[in-house]
Amino acid sequence: MFITNDMCFRLKEKYGTPLYVYSEEILREKCRDMKNLLPNKNVRINYSAKANTNLEILKIIREEGLDVDAMSPGEIYIELMAGFKPEQIFYISNNVSAEEMKHAIDRNILVGVDSLSQLETFGQINPGGRVAVRFNPGIGAGHHEKVITAGKKTKFGVQKEFIPEVKAILQKYNLTLAGINQHIGSLFLDGKAYVDGVKSFLEIAREFPSLSFIDMGGGFGVPYRKEEKPLDLNKLGDELDKVLSDFLKEYPNKDVVFKMEPGRYIVAECGILLGTVHSVKKNYDNTYIGTDLGFNVLVRPA
Over the stretch 206-223, which tens digit does the pLDDT of each residue have? Predict the structure, then answer.
């Protein structure tokens, strides 16, 4: 259901502004888009909650059968409140303290680490435990260089040349590598870079023959400008299906779960932000519209 102008005015009269308004119908539709992307594969969708941690939205996403990521103890708290079970939450923050890791460990939530030093810290506080490691496959993509989170110019992930060091730390602390994950960037509208990133990532997965899951990341884009075309999910699904089928022919664990991490794709197109105009003025031939929408409600408009 689309939100009409008349509905906006009625909601504004009832609740005031600033006001975020969401379509539950569109939200559920987007969840199902992702769940149906690879219907013939063993796939789980992890909603990246940093895109929107509204409690009611999290409840709907859980109802639609998605799992969830967490980036902080606060996100863990609200995700548990929304009804997600510990085994449905994947804690994937980076550069965190031992205390934050232990917060997740104590709640039986799987921790993903982002560096050799973080893997060492995890081993020290939870020897014999299960852990995941984020790798950088060397391929990144996104709508802006600041949101490209793989490749040679990003802090994220362990580069594949350090696989021997990862294996050594796992052995040192008797850790089980439950899975590996990546994230190449945000808001791509052409699936080619994502597929290329998955291919490179699967080369890393082959180094670990008993993984329970392989998390391919997310970053699925939505069009923000009229000239932009939506991501072709059918084409992307077909290309990924072939890549994963070829991989499974050789990989020992045929029951390995493939995960994906859509964040903004799930929520961006189901919501709008309503505000009220309070002033209009001109300064040096420029017209400025003054509203009640400050950075406290819209932090990153750019």
Answer: 999 999 999 999 888 899
